[in-house]
Amino acid sequence: MSGLVLKLRPAERIMINGAVIENGDRRTRLNVLTPNANVLRLRDAIHPDDANTPVKRVCYIAQLLLAGEAEPAVARKQLMQGIDQLNQVFDGMEARGHLGNAKTQIQQENDYQALKFLRFLLPFEAALMEAAQ
Q1: DSSP per-residue string spanning 26-82
Q2: Are 40 and 54 in contact (CB under 8 A)?
Q3: How far is Cα 23 from Cα 2, in angstroms, rounded to an integer?
């Protein structure tokens, strides 16, 4: 069986194609068979008040796009601009690789994969901010 496999903790919440779903009181395993379904674990979601760094802001835009809460054309344009700006800051090959992968995924309208690659940048950003202090 192919597709995305989600293993949920008791009372864990996820969003699938904009619908928030809460697990019951036992661990659950779900198979999402629909290709390109937009899935977001709410424990991984960035709260608007926490989108206070450049990478978190770009991730937040991707999250809004994934949740269906942003106009796709506008959000993708903002994401591309944000990635271009981040490319000027990150000089390591690994970080630039994630940015390139995120950009490719946005161009292919694979919003979940784009968010996944953007989230890889959070530790790089934290290290840069720590070094700057």
Answers
A1: S-EEEEE-STT--EEETTTPPPGGG--SHHHHHHHHHHHHHHT-S-HHHHHHHHHHH
A2: no
A3: 22
pLDDT mean over 97-109: 95
Residues in the chain: 133
- Asked if 33 and 24 count as a contact pair (C-beta separation under 8 A), the reply is no
Distance between CA atoms of 2 and 126, rounded to whole angstroms?
A: 35
User: From CA 78, how far away is CA 80, in angstroms rounded?
Assistant: 5
CA-only gyration radius of the chain, Å: 16
Residue 90 or 83, more confident = 83
**Separation CA 95–CA 108 (nearest Å):** 20
39: Cβ contacts below 8 Å, ≥ 6 apart:
4, 6, 14, 15, 16, 32, 112
66 beta partners = none
